[in-house]
Structure formats: structure tokens, C-alpha cells
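Blackboard transcription, Thursday session:
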Amino acid sequence: MSVLMPGLIHAGHDCTHGKMDHVCATCQVRELSICGALEPESLAAFERLSRTVEIDAKITLFTEGDRASHVFNVTRGVVRLYKMSPDGRRQIVGFALPGDFLGLALHESYGVSADAVTHVTVCKFVRTAFVSYLDEHPRLMRRLHEFASHELSLARDQMMLIGRHTAEERVAAFLFNLSERYQRIGESGVHIQLPMSRQDIADFLALTIETVSRTFSKLVKAKLIVIVPEGVRLLDSDGLHKLARVDV
Amino acid sequence: MSVLMPGLIHAGHDCTHGKMDHVCATCQVRELSICGALEPESLAAFERLSRTVEIDAKITLFTEGDRASHVFNVTRGVVRLYKMSPDGRRQIVGFALPGDFLGLALHESYGVSADAVTHVTVCKFVRTAFVSYLDEHPRLMRRLHEFASHELSLARDQMMLIGRHTAEERVAAFLFNLSERYQRIGESGVHIQLPMSRQDIADFLALTIETVSRTFSKLVKAKLIVIVPEGVRLLDSDGLHKLARVDV
DNA sequence: CGCGCCATTGACTCTGGTCAACGCTAGTGG
DNA sequence: CCACTAGCGTTGACCAGAGTCAATGGCGCG
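(Written on the board underneath:)
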């Protein structure tokens, strides 16, 4: 079942202010997220469609197969997206960071499950209302399509990574990619926060927790990274990239 | 480099007629493809945007990273979409069948490479013209987005398959899924054509050619399939589905 | 007929999985 | 204040599923 933390709705949950609801005008990830496609004059109306919701770590936002009542825009925190096989095997298909959108498909039902890895802040939209709004705003529709296309591209890269790369290459690529994503949202690309567990990383890279752990140790020995509380520090980003053996 | 077979353009290559160009009105896969979103009165204008092109087996339509000059609608034949790593490892990310669209992302450059597995017929559009047309036809844009979402969903299923399933499960799922796709486009779901080589199947399922071959043999011994010229015949579709261990 | 390509099969190897022990840290409660 | 526990991560020993390497077979084609 899908358990959505109700949060404290529509009061006191702006990213930066204390007593107002989220204000798009001051949103730190607006330009990075789908909202960046909206003209300032559309923003107010769009804003009224959403509610800002706070979600505690480990809480499930939605589950694969559930009726897709809402779509979400992540503004803070990390969300894991995954699929489960009936016998309990899990494949994490992605981690959503601030600026990422959940429910791109606009389908009647969710195609994956999602739960909060950290405490998370999202802008939550009623899906049907969101879709109606899209119909009137082709630029937003176009932006959403760009996001979906980007996700498709990431998914295909991940297929390549999982299918055709060694454990070491997968872990190196994971850290390198995460570093780049953090940089794009204005965080350090060197001190990489790893809020997700080793098990999460394993299920993302299609490895076991033991292999992930051993591979981290190997990267430490090779002086490519240092393990620090809450994450890793990249010592040799280039070396990591070489090890990943992806593209160019 | 991208080698696009010029084909015999704009003459004599309709799916069903001999002397006219492709006519959408008589296209067998129109309802299944993005064109199904168009009102009959838009169809004529849309049709003028495209050229019907015939492409021989093994010819490359486009290569990852190339400037995306065109987008394509497959009307006949099978196309493989893939990524290569610099050291020659290949991951096929999908097989496009009639009704499928190539270039969903509408990006400046192609995100994957594509080549014809069989002789292929496509409706070929200049990308920029196609995008302009989209801007005027929100329903088509919406349809394209649905196609992209569907592809994303398939890519994630494939991540799960490659990452968390055994060789036997992967091959069983491959045959079962192909059977369902063939049925949807009105072909037999029992006599499954396998125009792609064992190497292609291996690169799609992230296995080796030897493992694919051995697994086929195992399925034959288990009386789930029979290998016939050009493909396989499913003897026990349910058994295959059970073996695949996907979803429900 | 002989060559080349693809698929199949066998023998052996190896990467990553499994199983198990241990350590570290945070939280709990006497 | 510290003993106890639970959860997570690390490490080691061993195992197995799929990969590698190699031989063989079938088929189409010049």
C-alpha cells in the first residue's frame, strides 16, 4: 500500500521562509526543474495547483501499480525509485534529487515505487489538475517531455552499466555520476553525500551489499576516494572517471 | 559515422501499393503509432512532412552522438537500438517494431545508435520540421510523450530483468514479451519470428551468445519452445511466463 | 566443393554471490 | 554509567552461474 506522509500541509513549509507556504518565486531549484519552463506570469496560477509537503525518511510516497493520484516535484532531499519482483528482488531504477519530477508518465497508475531516503520536501500536484494545466501550457508539456527523455537516456545508460560493466566500473560510475548531479544542483562534487544505504547502492547497481562494500574498500586502497561520515570524498575524480569506462 | 541508406525516395514504396508514395490513410500501423493521435483532417499535412524510405538489413540508420537530422516512424521490419562502450562492449537497449518511433527525445543529437535488423520501411521526418509541427499539434505532442513514457517503462523493466534475473528468466521474459508485442501488431504470438541474431539477443539480455544458446536448448528440453527456421514456436506460453518471474 | 558465418556444445575459469563472523555506532533501559 | 541489543557495514572463505576458449556442425553461397 502507498503511505503518503500527510505532513503539515499548506503552512510553514517553504524552503527558506518560516511562515508562508512554498513560493515558487524564491524556489532554489525552479530553474532546474520543470517549473523553469513557465513565464513569471504563469507561475502564480501554477503555484496554486501545488501543495508543499514534507516527508520523513523511509516513508513511501507511492507504490508501483497504485492509482496515480498525484505527481511530485522534489525540492529537497533524496527519493529512491524502484521495482520489486514478486519474490522480493529489488531493482532501484533511480535516485531523485532536488529538481527531479516524479510521475513523468502521467499514467493512471504508478510504474515504479518511490520512497524517501532522507527527509524530503516535494511540491505535490493532483495529477488530473496537473494534466489539465499541461494542456493549456504547451511549453510546460514540452519541458516535461524533455525530462522524460532525459530519464529515458539515464535508464539506457544504466542498462549499459548494469549489463556490460564490472562491479568496479559500476561503483566508479555511480560515484562519478552522482558527483556531476550534485554539482549541477549547486552542491559539492567532491564531498559526496551518500544518504542511501549500501543496500540501496547495491540494488541500484545490481550487485550485492558485500560487493559494493568490497569495491569501496578497493577504491579507498587505490586512493581514489576516502570514506567519510555520511558519504565519500573524491580524491581523484579523473581516475574515477577512467575506471568507470563510460563513453568518451 | 551514420550511414543512412538513401533508398528509393518518394516513389514506389508504399506499404501496400505499388506506384504511390506511402499514404497514411492506408497505413497498417497508423493507429498503433504516434500518427493515431491525428485527426483525419490533419493527416494530409502531416503526411507531406515525411518521406517513405526503405532500408536494407544491417544498414545503420543513425549513430549515437550524431547530429539528429531526422526522426523516424517504423512501419515495417525490425530495428535494433544500442549503445557501445569505447572498448567495444555493446548493450542493445531495445528492438523497434512496426509502429515504434525513433528519435523520441527530439534532441540535437541521437542518444543511441540504430540499425536495421531486417529490411525496414520507415516514415522519415526532418527533425526540425517535425518539432515545428508538434508545436502546433498538442495532441501529437501528448502522444509522443506517452510513447516516451512507455519506452521509459520498458527500459526500467529491462533494468530489472538484466540486473536481478537469471539467464533463464531473461530469455523466457524476452520470448514472452516479444510474443505479446507481436500480438499487439497483429502477428502471431505463437510462431515468433527472431530476425535478430543470437548475438543481438545476448547483447539485449546482457548475456553471451553461448549462454543464450544453452538457455534456448534448455527451454527446448523443457518442452516450452521449439526452435524453427527463422524463430521459435511457443509450446507453453504460460510456462514461459512463470519461468520469467516478472511481476504478478 | 570448399569457404565463411552462425549456432551449438563441452571443458574449464573467474567474477561476483552466499554464508558467516565480527566490529562499530546509536539507542534503550536498569 | 554501562550493559545489552539492533542495524549497518566490512571482511573472509567458499561456491556457483555465467563467461571464456575451443571444437564441431549446419547452411548458404560463390
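Lecturer's comment: The longest strand of chain A covers residues 70-76.
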